């Protein structure tokens, strides 16, 4: 895989963004996706700064965030929070550097997914999720009780996107409708039966599996290993100026799957919505 130079920090104004819709059946809210990406990159800041919501540019854009609770275990981090301006509760799963190792090592094996006939999921992703699940669900429940009319969002990037997929199932079973389920650079999580199970859950208003150009992680684990993607893909071009809502539920060869293994990039994995999170991370440690 290519290792590109990191772009300078860039926030692309909304009015520059264009889209090329290919399906009327999919609802995608790009302004919300940008907001969600900022919530996501905030998780990369130091624990003290995240809990105090002193997270550089993100806290300047969204200054009134409350009810922040962080769950950290074995380098896996997820936090819950509330935005009173948007009346929105969310949980955001942080990306970790361990995803490449987790995909390659013995944890690549699939295990049965309880409550779903024939479903199997990646053991490593599931173990990582279990490290934070109980506290996370309890925190989300308390936020729902405190803000009963708030909208809800489940967010994740990279390994965090895989974990957020598992959380989506648990949270939706517990609380019903989820308003937004947005992931960035998600790997494949489970087999075809699991993918169908998640896609058929009729308890969400708005969902998107967002990919950026030649990001390598959405190609992993491989199809020949029995892994498939969840949800419709929203595929962004290299400059993050245009997107396509991909037609196929699983693998649309006009989107990220158009690229071969030797064309893939690690840089595109950390740069979404025109905002490079590795550059940003250095500002909030």
Notes on the structure:
The protein is of the alpha/beta class and 285 residues long. It has one domain: Rossmann fold (3-Layer(aba) Sandwich), CATH 3.40.50. It has ten helices and 13 strands. The chain has helices spanning 30-42, 47-52, 56-61, 99-104, 123-130, 133-146, 159-175, 192-199, 267-270, 277-281, and strands at 18-20, 66-73, 76-83, 88-93, 110-112, 120-122, 151-157, 178-184, 204-212, 233-236, 242-245, 271-272, 275-276. It has a nine-stranded mixed beta sheet, with helices on both faces. The two termini are 29 Å apart. Mean pLDDT is 86; it is low at 1-25.
Care to give the gist of this entry?
The protein is of the alpha/beta class and 285 residues long.
CATH architecture designation? 3-Layer(aba) Sandwich
Unreliable segments of 5+ consecutive residues: 1-25
Helices, by number, come to 10
The CATH topology is Rossmann fold
Task: Give the strand order, joined by hyphens, for the main sheet.
Answer: 1-11-10-9-8-7-4-3-2
Q: Helix/strand/pairing class, anyone?
A: alpha/beta
SSE map:
Layout: E1 18-20, H1 30-42, H2 47-52, H3 56-61, E2 66-73, E3 76-83, E4 88-93, H4 99-104, E5 110-112, E6 120-122, H5 123-130, H6 133-146, E7 151-157, H7 159-175, E8 178-184, H8 192-199, E9 204-212, E10 233-236, E11 242-245, H9 267-270, E12 271-272, E13 275-276, H10 277-281
Helix pairs in contact: 5-7, 6-7
């Amino acid at each position: 895989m290519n290792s590109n130079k990191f772009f300078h920090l860039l926030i692309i104004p909304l009015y520059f963004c264009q889209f090329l819709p290919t399906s009327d059946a999919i609802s995608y809210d790009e302004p919300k996706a940008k907001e969600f990406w900022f919530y996501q990159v905030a998780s990369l800041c130091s624990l003290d700064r995240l809990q105090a919501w002193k997270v550089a540019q993100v806290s300047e854009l969204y200054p009134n965030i409350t009810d922040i609770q962080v769950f950290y275990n074995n380098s896996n981090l997820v936090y819950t929070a509330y935005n009173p301006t948007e009346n929105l509760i969310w949980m955001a799963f942080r990306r970790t550097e361990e995803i490449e190792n987790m995909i390659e090592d013995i944890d690549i094996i699939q295990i049965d997914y309880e409550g779903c006939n024939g479903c199997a999921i990646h053991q490593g992703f599931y173990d990582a999720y279990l490290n934070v699940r109980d506290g996370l669900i309890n925190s989300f429940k308390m936020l729902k009780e405190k803000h009963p009319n708030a909208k809800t969002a489940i967010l994740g990037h990279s390994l965090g996107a895989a974990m957020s997929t598992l959380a989506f199932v648990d949270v939706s079973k517990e609380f019903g409708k989820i308003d937004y389920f947005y992931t960035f650079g998600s790997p494949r999580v489970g087999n075809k039966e699991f993918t169908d199970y998640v896609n058929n859950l009729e308890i969400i208003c708005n969902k998107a599996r967002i990919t950026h150009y030649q990001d390598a992680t959405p190609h992993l684990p491989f199809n020949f290993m029995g892994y498939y993607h969840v949800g419709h893909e929203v595929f962004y071009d290299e400059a993050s100026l245009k997107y396509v809502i991909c037609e196929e539920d699983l693998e649309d060869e006009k989107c990220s799957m158009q690229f071969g293994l030797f064309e893939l990039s690690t840089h595109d994995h950390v740069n979404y919505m025109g905002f490079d999170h590795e550059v940003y991370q250095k500002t909030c440690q």
